[in-house]
Design goal:
The complex is a heterodimer of chains A (113) and B (141). Chain A contains 4 helices and 5 strands; from the N terminus they run ββαβαβαβα. Chain A has 113 residues and is an alpha/beta fold. Chain A has one domain: STAS domain (Transcription Regulator spoIIAA), CATH 3.30.750.24. The relative contact order of chain A is 0.18. Chain B has a single domain, classed as Heat Shock Protein 90 (2-Layer Sandwich), CATH 3.30.565.10. With 141 residues, chain B is α+β, with helices and mostly antiparallel strands. In chain B, a hairpin with a 3-residue loop joins β2 and β3. Classes of the chains: A alpha/beta (113), B alpha+beta (141).
């Protein structure tokens, strides 16, 4: 399965819905999308990962890169994820301390802390 | 002892194929269903790393994956032919700092996922060897 990406705006947040597999082959596509959003002035991103089937360290690297970019503009990057097998990768790498991870998109778009 | 060997040219698009093959062979070998996600992720990390090393060092040889169904364990070896190999100094090649960081994260994921793994290297390349218990193997609960 390839990677699917779609974006929508909710208030001042941009929700990026990701589906499929994020790996060494598809991660550059996600990187491009995040770079493009930041270049276009979207600094508050919510990455919805509920439809992601696979995530590896290359994908984590892209998300960390995205976080660095939005932070340079005092923005935010929040994740939405309930899947244990995906959350496990964030825990192993200690990235649960780096990313705010929410259970619903609604919660993520209204979060301010 | 049954072995499946896979060789693929160092292209990112083939890493998914390696993951699928590894998971299928692991399932057939009797690795617990709950561990298959780990097998998939770990082999993907090892292969991504090997692909990066080959591309960064302009190695044209294929990446080698050996899946072995032994009696009590299922083991996977991912071999590269990059000089210095997996344990080589990170960030010294043409790959640069950001790739080196991703590289370290790949090994971090493997070390967090797999209890039994080993990274070796030499001038001719390196090998990441990982193994998982086989369900229902004699002597195991």
């Amino acid at each position: 399965m390839d990677l699917s990406l779609s974006t929508r705006t909710v208030g001042d947040r941009t929700v990026v819905e990701v589906g499929g597999e994020i790996d060494v082959y598809t991660a550059p596509k996600l990187r491009e999308q995040l770079v493009e959003l930041v270049n276009d002035g979207s600094y508050h991103l919510v990455v919805d990962m509920e439809r992601v089937d696979f995530l590896d360290s290359t994908g984590l690297g892209v998300l960390v890169g995205g976080l660095k970019r939005v932070r340079a503009h005092e923005g935010s990057l929040r994740l939405v994820c309930n899947q244990e097998r995906i959350l496990k990768i964030f825990r192993i790498t200690g990235l649960t301390k780096v990313f705010p991870i929410h259970t619903t998109v609604e919660e993520a778009v209204s979060a301010t802390d | 002892m049954a072995t499946v060997e896979l060789r693929f040219s160092a292209q990112p698009e083939h890493v998914r194929t390696a993951r699928l093959v590894a998971a299928a062979v692991a399932r057939r070998a009797g690795v617990e269903e709950a561990l298959l996600d780990e097998v998939r992720l770990a082999v993907g990390e090892a292969c991504s790393r090997a692909v990066g090393l080959h591309r960064g060092n302009a190695v044209t040889a294929p990446v080698r994956v050996v899946l072995t169904d032994e009696e009590k364990v299922f083991s996977i070896e991912v071999g590269d032919e990059a000089p210095g190999g997996p344990a080589g100094p990170a960030g010294t090649g043409p790959a640069g700092d950001s790739d080196a960081a991703e590289d370290d994260m790949g090994l971090a994921v493997i070390s967090g996922l797999v209890d039994d793994y080993e990274v070796t290297s030499g001038e001719a390349g390196g090998v990441i060897r990982m193994s998982w218990p086989v369900a229902g193997a004699p002597g195991l609960p």
